[in-house]
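Q: Hi! First time asking for a complex rather than a single chain. Here are the components, and I think there are two in total. Is that enough to go on?
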Amino acid sequence: MAITKTIGVETEYGILIRGTDESNPIAASSLLINAYLNAERDGPAPSVGWDFEDESPGMDQRGFAPVGSMPPEVETHLVNAVLTNGARYYVDHAHPEISTPECTNAYDVVLFDRAAELIAIKSMVAADRVLPEEQNLVVYKNNSDGKGNSYGCHENYLVDRLTPFSNIIAHATAHFITRQIFTGSGKVGVEAPGLTSDDVPFQITQRADFFEEEVGLETTLKRPIINTRDEPHADAQKYRRLHVIVGDANMSQVSTYLKVGTTALILAMTEDNFLPRDFVFAAPVQAMREVSYDLTLSEPLPMADGTKMSALEVQWEFLEQSRKYVEERGTENVGGEVALDVLNRWEHVLGALEDDPMQLADQLDWVAKYSLLNSFRDRHSVAWDDARLRALDIQYADLRPHKCLFNKLNVETIVNDEDATKAMVSPPEDTRAYFRGECLKRWPEQIVAANWDSMVFDLGDEPLRRVPMMEPTRGTRAHVGTLLEECETAAELLEKLGN
Amino acid sequence: MAEREQKKRPTPRESQEQIDETPAVSEEGEKIKSELDDLLDEIDEVLETNAEDFVKSYIQKGGQ
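A: Yes, that's all I need. Here is the structure of the assembled complex.
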């Protein structure tokens, strides 16, 4: 049965130190994060370390670890902090990474994703203060260096453990292949083996080139469309966390909003066995790329049953079922009122994509970028292999506000920066992130470590005390707001919690 | 193909309105064109000065 969709997004950012030939990305990422934490130390973002007690990224949803597969290693020696908004800010695989706190709707995900961008921007400014004058540190919100190296923007959705994983594979795969038409961030050229930019001068997504398997545990090699990491960060008897690795990091808030909003709906329908049919593609890995390469969105893809369907046709059916689902079952588990807005925007975007995708230059990343590149090509009469177009592509996602080309394009926003600025330091109120963030705000000295599903307190004269938070939708403002108000000290809180 | 046509949703409202108001379109078109020119001027200004070197130097370690 469908459970409340608790959602979070983790973004690995690209990073460069400019003005030096010795740019070590791990050192640069540490510097970036430490500069932010130091700047905020006396303010609202105390630096509390991450607790690795319950991390097991090698567990597989299918209940086994396939021979020869490479579960990611947990690197414990690098900077790793929890923020007062409930987010995690750390170095991962030579990139700075920010995981949003747990949210229950697409609006909040966009809000905390924008807050993460603002944190990265503030970090760059802080880092430049400690770097030699000729150097500066730049963060990019993209997924590829154009040379075959990719880094991810992962989504996480809490799903019912009782839902057969094979059902999730079936419906999620179909959605991941076809949602690319609105989730793509656009990319100049191609990085899949055997193709050149003559074959694919521009494509819809950053990431499609990097997927080689249908289902698997890896995230850095032989990436699968469905990642099977089984690490719910919650009660494992009741929940799974679907770890989604196929998405692009979006500058466009509309793209992020639709990406998580529609996926939450597909997963809820899967849990409730609501979808009347499967869309099984004959060659899913191939289909990911074909959708990404087809800027006309008209090429039908071969299905396993011998028929053909376009990405748009599959999306129209998913939309139709989602409308029906919400009418029959309500919006309680899929984001409340926000889900209704997601449905309307989804319909508008599919209609415009079908009519003429270029109408969406003020809404979707790939269209905004493609349209900018075309205008630039017209003005300067340049061919697709011109280095300036690749530079434009990278600089589209340059997070420095005065250099960011996305910022110049007047793309529609979902949240405003005033709210996002507050969200840099305040947690969502309707998940356990509220308890995490509020405790960190009030008693940073007494919290020695925190992670998604627990916090560790040190009251000085006694053994460390771990407070488990295995239910992602408990510890909300409604649950613990009054309790927190009533407690002067962490000791009082633990006593009242009976810990 | 017939099936595809059948499924096709109504054209979004804006584009129909645009067709109805032809004279406004050219004025609007001029405005868009001049805004685009301003935008491209701005892009030329902020774009990395040596695009080729910049693109070469943008190397990232693979991540997840």
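A: Residues 1-21 of chain B have pLDDT under 50 and may be disordered. Let me know if you'd like any chain examined more closely.
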